[in-house]
Design brief:
There is one protein chain. Strand 1, helix 2 and strand 2 form a beta-alpha-beta unit. By secondary structure, this protein is of the alpha/beta class. The structure holds flavin-adenine dinucleotide (FAD). The site of flavin-adenine dinucleotide (FAD) has 29 residues, from helix 7, helix 8 and strand 14.
Length: about 375
């Protein structure tokens, strides 16, 4: 129940004149990233979040924009995961990402859709695409958000009350603060969201939606860049796709990380999808490369099972893994913070626990997964 003080504040807020600068903009749009062939997992994550957020708007329409070669093949998946409408921009030249035609395509689509909110994935490509689109549309962009909401925003100085401000939250000041960024003066209010932060919805094959074949007004200059060759590879660490993540902290040293790798290999040999993760301190100590890092400045993950082995549980680490379905912590310190988010905690030296785990897995033990 709200206190008298809260009630009084609400009354004062409601006395400020309401302002609505949306000028017909309504609903939410998301960009559904593809890698040419498949949808990026985050395409469905931001779609799920858009669906949830749309409940707070008058116009609950969620539109997904998908670009690529044969992009129409993704429309049904997007509808099943929450889209009411899919704008399909299909072109054989777009098997690979190309900045200029993508920017024109998204900007043209946004001008036609007129959403009040636009959400992109903060992937490497999203980080190239989103700011360019925002600049062309003369709107702001909050990058790398980890929480989103819609609600009232009152600016007493300007005497303005917005009832549907998009609240884009992201860690700031070296993680000491969670900043809420708003910009209800220009539309669409736009943000990029880190992959792995939001959960995708369970697919619903009974959902129906509209598929719009959209033709951007590309001009010759949009195609001046030519993709001569694409070398895929780089990071092969696919933490976001792993069902089981075995993460280690800095005190494990090289010997400990070799042991964790052996455990990962044994799990994989049994046909389960496992990956090696790490704390930033372990990365800084040179025990493992940075593409394994989980946390605020690393990757955000939500596996079925997350093993935190010799990890203290600093808030920056928790930010990257606290949405895991099950957390198993192994630490010699019974007061380690990691135990506060653990479903199962083992207070022991990892050297007493991990070899036994390896033995069991090599004997055919597989982890029970909910999915
Ligand atoms: C701006 C900023 C961003 C950051 N981003 C990240 C990030 O993305 N990810 C991240 O992880 N950190 C990040 N950090 C760093 C974070 O604050 C911590 O320093 C880091 O997570 C600690 O790593 P650790 O748990 O390996 O080391 P420590 O905190 O030193 O903990 C080591 C743990 O190992 C346990 N241990 C020691 N020996 C054993 C043993 N034999 N068996 C079992 N347990 C043992 C100890 O009890 C202890 O709990 C960031 C910091 C800042 C300021």
């Amino acid at each position: 129940m709200s206190t008298d003080r809260e009630k009084a504040k609400l009354e004062r807020d409601m006395a400020v004149p309401e302002v609505d600068l949306r000028d017909g903009a309504s609903g939410i749009a998301t960009w559904a990233q593809t890698d040419g062939e498949n949808l990026h997992p985050a395409a469905l994550e931001i779609l799920g979040e858009a669906r949830r957020l749309s409940e707070k708007l008058e116009d609950k329409t969620v539109t997904s924009i998908v670009i690529g070669k044969d992009a129409e093949k993704h429309a049904q998946t997007l509808i099943e995961h929450g889209a009411d409408r899919v704008y399909v921009i299909s072109d054989d030249r777009l098997l690979e990402y190309r900045t200029l035609p993508y920017v024109r395509a998204i900007v043209d689509a946004i001008r036609e859709i007129k959403p009040e909110i636009m959400i992109y994935t903060a992937s490497a490509i999203g980080r190239d695409l989103a700011p360019r689109c925002a600049a062309r549309l003369h709107v702001g962009l909050s990058a790398d958000c980890t929480q989103l909401d819609i609600g009232m925003y009152v600016n007493r100085k300007k005497g303005q009350r917005f009832m549907h401000a998009f609240k884009m939250m992201r860690p700031s000041f070296g993680e000491s603060k969670l900043a809420t960024i708003i910009g209800p003066w220009n539309y669409p209010q736009s943000s990029t969201v880190r992959p792995g932060v939001f959960a995708k919805l369970q697919p619903d094959s009974s959902r129906t939606g509209e598929v719009v074949k959209f033709e951007p007004k590309w001009v010759e200059e949009d195609w001046i860049q030519e993709v001569v060759e694409v070398q895929k590879g780089g990071s092969r660490v696919e933490l976001e796709k792993a069902d089981i993540i075995i993460s280690g902290g800095k005190d494990l040293g090289r010997e400990g990380f070799e042991m964790l790798q052996e455990l990962v290999d044994a799990i994989r040999a049994n046909g389960q999808v496992a990956e090696l993760g790490a704390s930033r301190a372990a990365v800084n100590a040179g025990l493992i490369s940075s593409d394994h890092q989980v946390g605020q400045t690393g990757k955000t993950v939500r596996p079925e099972i997350y093993f935190a082995i010799g990890i203290s549980g600093a808030v920056q680490h928790l930010m990257g893994m606290q949405n895991s379905k099950k957390v198993v912590a192994i630490n010699i310190d019974p007061n380690a913070k990691i135990f506060q988010v653990a479903d199962y905690g083992i207070v022991d030296d990892y050297k007493n626990v991990v070899p036994e785990l390896i033995k069991q897995v090599k004997n055919g033990f597989t982890f029970e997964l909910d999915k």
